[in-house]
């Protein structure tokens, strides 16, 4: 499905530019970045906090735009992405490239001026990792793309913490590990439902390469170290009992759902089956886990 040749004659609307930033993905990125900032053991001025979170949002949006610029050919081959601005013929690729590059530089420079060098450097690394390592190098080459590439979405808590403190310590590294290990089971649960799209586009996602049953087993396997990372901040005495109770309770529920997924023998995942329930719960899991971190810090400080 070729991209419309008339796209170059169409002006990009504000809605199309906003769509390039992948706002749904950005919301989770911004939230975890904000939680990393609020969990830091320092008082952060509201203006600095707003500027840091804005930079995280802009950086995530820049990475999303560059991802769409590079993957316009893939998006045109998949039903769930065919209506995006580039494959939909509402924008030319050059506009997306300029928008993504400009937003990248602006977010990093603003972070450096508003916060500190370390936060700006980590933000720049996160953008480059998502674009160059995941999008350009991994996604079209290996079924482990989302495993390694998951690091791209794990940087925001590190960035938020660094913006507040100017350094990185054990707790933000564990927050990075939680998201890094959470990404594969979360994404694989979704990819089971759209594997035909990936197959049509030639993307070697795990369900396409290894099959449904293997993907279900991988979801369970990756859930175990994710749970260990989620409980570790409390077990190591870096958080209080509020976070500990939430982490243990949510992780137990996640494990039960992952076991149901692994035990499922249906050839095709069903709309209301365990895979869809796990995917929906995984989003709630991460939001509640990071919210508990902030509540724990402010209630028990």
Automatic annotation (TrEMBL):
<comment type="similarity">
    <text>Belongs to the UbiA prenyltransferase family. Protoheme IX farnesyltransferase subfamily.</text>
</comment>
<feature type="transmembrane region" description="Helical">
    <location>
        <begin position="278"/>
        <end position="295"/>
    </location>
</feature>
<comment type="function">
    <text>Converts heme B (protoheme IX) to heme O by substitution of the vinyl group on carbon 2 of heme B porphyrin ring with a hydroxyethyl farnesyl side group.</text>
</comment>
<keyword id="KW-0808">Transferase</keyword>
<protein>
    <recommendedName>
        <fullName>Protoheme IX farnesyltransferase</fullName>
        <ecNumber>2.5.1.141</ecNumber>
    </recommendedName>
</protein>
<dbReference type="GO" id="GO:0008495">
    <property type="term" value="F:protoheme IX farnesyltransferase activity"/>
</dbReference>
<dbReference type="InterPro" id="IPR030470">
    <property type="entry name" value="UbiA_prenylTrfase_CS"/>
</dbReference>
<keyword id="KW-0472">Membrane</keyword>
<dbReference type="InterPro" id="IPR006369">
    <property type="entry name" value="Protohaem_IX_farnesylTrfase"/>
</dbReference>
<keyword id="KW-1133">Transmembrane helix</keyword>
<feature type="transmembrane region" description="Helical">
    <location>
        <begin position="48"/>
        <end position="70"/>
    </location>
</feature>
<feature type="transmembrane region" description="Helical">
    <location>
        <begin position="117"/>
        <end position="137"/>
    </location>
</feature>
<feature type="transmembrane region" description="Helical">
    <location>
        <begin position="242"/>
        <end position="266"/>
    </location>
</feature>
<comment type="pathway">
    <text>Porphyrin-containing compound metabolism; heme O biosynthesis; heme O from protoheme: step 1/1.</text>
</comment>
<feature type="transmembrane region" description="Helical">
    <location>
        <begin position="25"/>
        <end position="42"/>
    </location>
</feature>
<dbReference type="InterPro" id="IPR044878">
    <property type="entry name" value="UbiA_sf"/>
</dbReference>
<dbReference type="InterPro" id="IPR000537">
    <property type="entry name" value="UbiA_prenyltransferase"/>
</dbReference>
<feature type="transmembrane region" description="Helical">
    <location>
        <begin position="219"/>
        <end position="236"/>
    </location>
</feature>
<keyword id="KW-1003">Cell membrane</keyword>
<feature type="transmembrane region" description="Helical">
    <location>
        <begin position="91"/>
        <end position="111"/>
    </location>
</feature>
<keyword id="KW-0812">Transmembrane</keyword>
<keyword id="KW-0350">Heme biosynthesis</keyword>
<dbReference type="Pfam" id="PF01040">
    <property type="entry name" value="UbiA"/>
</dbReference>
<feature type="transmembrane region" description="Helical">
    <location>
        <begin position="158"/>
        <end position="182"/>
    </location>
</feature>
């Amino acid at each position: 499905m070729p991209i419309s040749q008339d796209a170059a004659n169409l002006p990009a609307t504000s809605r199309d530019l906003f769509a390039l930033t992948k706002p749904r993905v950005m919301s989770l990125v911004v939230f975890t970045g904000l939680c990393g900032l609020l969990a830091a053991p320092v008082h952060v001025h509201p203006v600095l906090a707003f500027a840091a979170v804005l930079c995280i949002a802009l950086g995530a949006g820049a990475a999303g735009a560059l991802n769409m610029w590079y993957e316009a050919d893939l998006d045109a081959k998949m039903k769930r992405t065919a209506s995006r601005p580039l494959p939909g013929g509402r924008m030319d690729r050059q506009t997306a490239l300029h928008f993504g590059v400009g937003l990248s530089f602006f977010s990093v420079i603003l972070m450096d001026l508003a916060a500190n060098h370390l936060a700006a450097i980590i933000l720049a690394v996160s953008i480059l990792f998502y674009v160059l390592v995941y999008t350009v190098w991994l996604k079209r080459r290996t079924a482990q793309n989302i495993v390694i590439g998951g690091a791209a979405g794990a940087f925001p808590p590190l960035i938020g913490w660094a913006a507040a403190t100017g350094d990185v310590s054990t707790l933000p590294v564990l927050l990075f590990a939680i998201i890094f290990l959470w990404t594969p089971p979360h994404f694989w649960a979704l990819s089971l439902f759209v594997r035909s799209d990936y197959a049509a586009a030639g993307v070697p996602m795990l369900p396409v390469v290894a099959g449904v049953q293997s993907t279900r087993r991988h979801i369970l396997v990756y859930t175990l170290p994710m749970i260990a990372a989620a409980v570790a901040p409390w077990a190591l005495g870096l958080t209080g009992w509020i976070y500990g109770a939430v982490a243990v309770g949510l992780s137990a529920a996640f494990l039960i759902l992952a076991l149901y997924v692994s035990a499922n023998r249906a050839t095709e995942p069903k709309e209301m089956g365990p895979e869809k329930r796990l995917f929906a719960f995984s989003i709630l899991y991460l939001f509640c886990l990071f919210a508990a971190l902030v509540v724990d810090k402010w209630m028990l400080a």
